[in-house]
Write a structure and sequence with these properties.
Elements (H helix, E strand, L loop, with lengths): L1 E7 L6 E9 H14 L1 E7 L7 E7 L2 E9 L2 E5 L10 E6 L2 E6 L4 E2 H14 L8 E3 L1
Antiparallel strand pairs: 1-2, 1-3, 3-4, 4-5, 5-6, 5-9, 6-10, 7-8
Amino acid sequence: MDVVWSMTSVHSARFDSTERRSELRDLVSAFWELRASGQGHLEVNLPDSLYPYLTLSFLGDHAVIHLFTSEDSVSLLVGDGSVSPEGEVDVPVMDDLGTFTGDFVMGVDRAWDVMENFVRAGTVEGLGEWCEL
């Protein structure tokens, strides 16, 4: 099962937009190496299609997932309640920090499960509730 992805470099801590096409296991390995660094940004889509694609941004134990369904359509996955709705969390979005309310924050393990399920199923259906921006 192939996947197309780009992510923060563990060596430079900067987002590397170079797309890689690999088997899922290679992405899993790269993600766990990035996770060990404590923060990063990952973009994933399926081979031979621009959309949909997901991004996972995390810092420490907190993560946020964006869904892009077209050039003009972006949604956020509703969080898992790990941060109160009034709370705010910063996560890296590419090379900048983005601030998100607790409504859209989840644990990194939950976020990674979403990404894996997207790649395995080839769809965003059933991954959770999306809020269009």
